[in-house]
Amino acid sequence: MAVDIPYNVDKWRPSDQKAYNAWLRKVLEEAKSEENQKLLPPVQALKELIENDHYIWNLAQMMFDEIPKRLVDAPADLPQVRDYHQMLLMINRVIQRAPEYNETSFVGTPMAAIFNYPMGTRAGYAFFMNDKVNAKLRDILNYWGRYLKSEASTYVLNTSSQGWLGEEALKRMAEKAYGDDFQKVFKCASSDFDKHLGFKSWDDYFTREFNPGVRPVENPDDPDSIACSCESAPLKIAHNVPLQAKFWIKSQPYSLLDLLQNDPWAAKFAGGTLYQAFLSVFSYHRWNSPVDGTIVKAYNLPGAYYAEDLYKGYDSVTPDDSQATASQEFLTSTSTRAVIFIKADNPKIGLMCFVAVGMSEVSSDEITVKVGQHVKKGDQLGMFHYGGSTHVMLFRPETQLEFNLHGQEPGLGSSDIKVRSEIARVK
Prior knowledge:
Organism: Lactobacillus intestinalis DSM 6629
Structural class: alpha+beta
Oligomer: single chain
Strand order of the largest sheet: 2-3-11-7-6-5-9
Keywords: Decarboxylase, Lyase, Pyruvate, Zymogen
InterPro entries: Dup_hybrid_motif (IPR011055), PS_Dcarbxylase (IPR003817), PsiD-like (IPR022237)
Shape: globular
Number of strands: 13
Low-confidence stretches: 1-14, 247-251, 316-324
Radius of gyration: 21 Å
Protein name: L-tryptophan decarboxylase PsiD-like domain-containing protein
Helix content: 25-40%
């Protein structure tokens, strides 16, 4: 019987720490032992930026110096990334490989795991928010993304304990989708494991589709019923959302102008309702329309890839040890985003907005619909590539909603709500 698997993404479990240490040690040793340590072009470009820009060089030094003493003075056998030189070597190693399976939250975000400690510092915040740094990181992630979409990446689609087609991995993927058989839940072009179940690349596996009928639209003919647009865990419902706020302060308030990067339509949602939910690396990563309606505007926004809220970093009483998972409200205004405005057929809903928010390695938020296209509730809007991610739905103040979280309270310990099931009703 499938069971709810809560994320508890704000908790860095001892098992996570043990696996993180083992993974980091392995990558460190591999990077150091590489006979040819010539950096790949995009990594070399980041190195040159660091070493030719005095301000960025200072940040790159300080973000390691500011790591708390309790971590710096950890046991000698505890692996650490000690400086930006090691960091670059490890990045160079990672982007020539596909992620191997393990049960931890960082499995699909290896570079975020490399940056885990420095990005929680003040200097790390400034480094990872820097536009020049993010331009170089974008080139690195695009380089890696091309590899993950290539047939060469299928070597991790095997049946070993570290393979994504191994018994443990397939069980985890099926259970995460509330099923008990991966091939019954997900569309596989082949049943032959030697042919990787028909998946052409690691990214093809990551963006896998459900089999027909696995996720039917709930209340397809009821225009007052709003569907869950992503297979995701509810994080927060915010009412009377301000047009602009100091999103970087401790409470992480939402800021519509920053979320939509000064789009003039942001004002239409001032005082309205915002729903945010989180997808883990093990979740289904395609987005679906929550309503019947017409796509009236769609675009991608650039942003930072590895910044986290300072108040969740090491200045906090309870720092976010598991990368930036507790900074998700903050990330809606800083990370890469895909924005899709939909004019619902139901006038009680009218204009609404879906925002896909990339987290860390999720650098490619792919929109698959076009402006002017009419979509039915449950139709695909796009997809995330790589890693974990979050998303937002915005509603105008005129749209009065009653949410249906299927017996849950929003928060970091919630569980996935099935995509295309009802998430809210218009009053």
